[in-house]
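Minimal example, chain plus iron/sulfur cluster.
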Amino acid sequence: MTLRTLLADTLNGHRLTEEEAAFLFSVTGTDVYDLFIAADKICRRKNGDRITFVRNQNIHITNICKNLCNFCGFGKAKKSLDAYQLGEEEIKKQIRDAKERGVTEICFLSGVHPDFTLETYIQFMTWVHEIHPQVHIHAFSPDEVDYVARKADIPTTKALKILMEAGLGTLQGTAAEILVDDVRKTICPAKVKSDVWERIAREAHGLGLRSTATIMYGTTESYLDRANHLNRIRSIQDDTGGFTEMVLLSFIHYKTPLFERGLVKTGPTGRDDLVTTAVCRLFLDNFDHIQVSWPKLGIKLTQMTLLAGADDLAGTMYLDDVTGEAGGGGTEEYLDPSEMEHICSDIGRTLVERTTLYAKFE
Ligand code: SF4
């Protein structure tokens, strides 16, 4: 089958197989433009000319992490000289800042601190709701849920219910990385296995707690591993419909153990970032939204992903220590909506502010 036939069939409703997706990931030369055009057509069928963003703020409570993943430059051991943990006053100050900025979503993006418990997470959410009651809390990965549930000696469904009752709005789809255990052994051996991540995502969706899905690509995985990952995510979505969007996380290699130990030479190239965006858009026919991460790609490459299948610019952020600590350059702290507006209008698209669950503020 040729690339053109495969893309034409996909535009006519053919559901890509894993092998076909692996083939698409490998496309090079000017053929990549055919791929981008097909992905852009599907994107516009679903979203028109709209590009969305959410006014959000990250709070990095701690970089102390039990997992110390090999692809991460952010997580630190408790005894590390670079380890930090914000105190109550600093966390509350950041929540007050978020309120003053008109932020509609607060994300906790932290290490999985070995001493944190379910009660710790409830405490953080209580502070948020005391200060900014209307804000949506987007927090905690399946790995974090698994960890605090095991510490509390309760099933993960019960932990999820407790977190929901304490005000959790949506679960983070992080810790998925690539849901292939052979890859996880190299890049994140201490994290939950693929089956556990999937089970917790399904449990959350079953309880009515929606989540993002993520792919962290460009480490040691093969194109077929990436396709296996996407297939797993697509199957969950077929059954639950609980994912709000697929979030693409391009590996930033500079200050990571994988790079320092010579296990990777570099992170993904610009071709790979754009092609991966397009393949995600084409493969995930049951997703409305594909989100790109401007702190990881930079503003200029991010703009090009909006012509290759992506329709969501994520958030204003205000802080992204995870990318900064891995050596990602550029403006990883804050992206003003006026700059988002500029990169959208420059390609003939319209920027629209959304809520976490994609309600629009037109
Ligand atoms: S990716 Fe997350 S879990 Fe892994 S070391 Fe970094 S902060 Fe910890």
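Residues 65, 67-69, 72, 74-75, 111-112, 188 surround iron/sulfur cluster (CB under 6 Å). Residues 75 and 119 are 22 Å apart (CA to CA).
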